[in-house]
Design brief:
2 strands; mainly alpha; flat
Length: 398
Amino acid sequence: MDFMKVMGSSIFDKALDLVVSIREDAFERSLRLAKSGNSYAQLEVGKLYLNGYGIDTDDNAAVIKNNNKAFYWFLKSSEQNNAGAFFMLSNCFEHGIGVQKNIEKAEDYLYKAAEFGDKEALLQLARFFISKKDFSMAISFLEKLNEVDDGTYMVKIAQIYTRIGAAYIYGYEVMYDYEVDMNFEKGFKYLIVAAEMGDSEAQSELGSMYLGGEDNVQQDYEKAFFYLKRAAKQKDSSAIMNLARCYESGYGVEKNIKKAIRLYCEILSIEILYPEHYNFDEALHIIKDYKDLEYIENCIDSPVVFYYLSQEFIGFDKEQNPEKYIHFLKKSAEMGYDKAQYELGKMYENGLHVEKNIDKAIEWFEKAGEQGDDGAIYSLLYLKDSDFFKRNNHSKKD
């Protein structure tokens, strides 16, 4: 065993040495090119000095982090109008990296970077002008970014168009918290631009507008279905909710209740993962009335969702159906959800909706207790008390 450990360590060390050697060779090649005047190599060397390989004092690092050298090479690269170098210099002046902090120079270099087509600079300026309530300038930089983009920034461009479109439609910019002069025509136009670029939020918004019909949008079920289906493919829960309604009622598509139920179940599986449950309660309420339990079970893969579904059939303000309550609670517990396991244990302990069975109660409490459920642990301590068993075991013998 010791020999194998030594051999394993030796192989790992050799692999690490090889990686370091490759990095060193790459850096040396870039440095030679940089010294010969290649602006792209100068930019790359600057980035290597800026980031190092993670730890300044690591003896194995091929490049030791050095902000001054990083700034030097960015400046050399910028002398040949390298857009990326202008952008890096903007960051250096903004944050005081290798040079004294100077916001005015940071802005100047950011504009230069954008002028020469740096994508990140164009994106930052678009966001900057949104923060300054100047949508026209923001859009001009988005258009320039779209011209030079190879698809890498499409998602980010679309997201900003969506924000601008929503701000015009609803008269409010959410991120920077300010009011906007409403202009539905402009807003709708930019939502369409964003939707065509693939933004799910814009697609969902358009689908909702066409589905319900707005003051400025004529109701069109086919267009609604078109946009909602595209957004739903990207797991937008609001779009999935509306798409389920389309299938449930036959809006823009042939009526199909099973597809609708599957989509409502999908909403539950998505929204259970997040603190905001915008559509969860409504979807849960719809699913509980569906009579095909086996189909529901095939559509749900989350024990937590099964637990919440079980709660729809118990309680003072809910439909009283102990059979369905137990059915879904057991499903959740069997899939390992500790809260369901504890609740099932309490049912067997007290004989609520099931025949009293202390052994089964202990079994479920143990499963929940193994996951750290405090209530289950306390119940186990209580049930395993010998005096308690003396008082209760006679009921099983009878």
